[in-house]
């Protein structure tokens, strides 16, 4: 899992930046953007680690 943080740092940072920018431009949709950010952030872990990396 630590390898994902190292190798996918750009992807993970992009997820957070997209979330921040989306909420800044439309704060009323923050919950929807949060769900999108969670999916974006978890995808590299799911790819690398499989189902055991899933967030429940």
Features:
mainly alpha
Structure, briefly:
The chain is mainly α and 56 residues long.
> Strand fraction band?
under 5%
> How many DSSP E strands?
0
Spatial shape: elongated
Pick out the low-confidence regions. Answer: none
Number of domains: 1
Number of helices: 3
Give the class from helix and strand content and strand pairing.
Answer: mainly alpha
Q: If you average the pLDDT, what whole number results?
A: 92
What is the terminal separation in angstroms? 17 Å
Describe this entry's structure for a reader:
With 56 residues, the chain is mainly α. The chain has one domain. 77% of the residues lie in helices and 0% in strands. The protein has helices at residues 2-7, 9-25, 30-49. The chain is elongated.
Question: How are the SSEs placed, and which strands pair?
Answer:
Layout: H1 2-7, H2 9-25, H3 30-49
């Amino acid at each position: 899992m630590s390898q994902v943080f190292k190798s996918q740092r750009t992807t993970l940072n992009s997820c957070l930046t997209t979330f921040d920018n989306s909420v800044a431009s439309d704060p009323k949709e923050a919950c929807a953007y949060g769900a999108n950010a969670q999916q974006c952030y978890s995808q590299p872990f799911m790819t690398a680690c499989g189902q055991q990396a899933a967030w429940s």
